[in-house]
Design goal:
- By secondary structure, the protein is mostly helical.
- α1 crosses α2.
- The radius of gyration is 17 Å and the shape is extended.
- The protein starts with 7 loop residues before the first helix and ends in a 17-residue tail after the last helix.
Length: 66
């Protein structure tokens, strides 16, 4: 599976998120985040495409009352 290509809107989103949180990030790290933003969004979207997963509990849960 090929990775999505970063777009200018990916860069705008990453830079806006960094600015919103008042972070100072070196340019090479911004480039890293931009390059990885599209693949991370694609992976997240793939999780939502799985039937029955969105509202299910994790397979391993802990209930202190039992």
């Amino acid at each position: 599976m090929s990775q999505p290509t970063p777009t200018s809107s990916d860069r705008m989103f990453v830079e806006a998120a960094i600015a919103q949180h008042g972070l100072t990030v070196p340019p090479e790290e911004v480039d890293f985040f931009v390059a990885n933003y599209a693949p991370c969004r694609a992976a997240l979207a793939a999780l939502y495409r799985l039937n029955g997963v969105r509202y299910e509990e994790p397979a391993v849960t802990f209930n202190a009352l039992t």
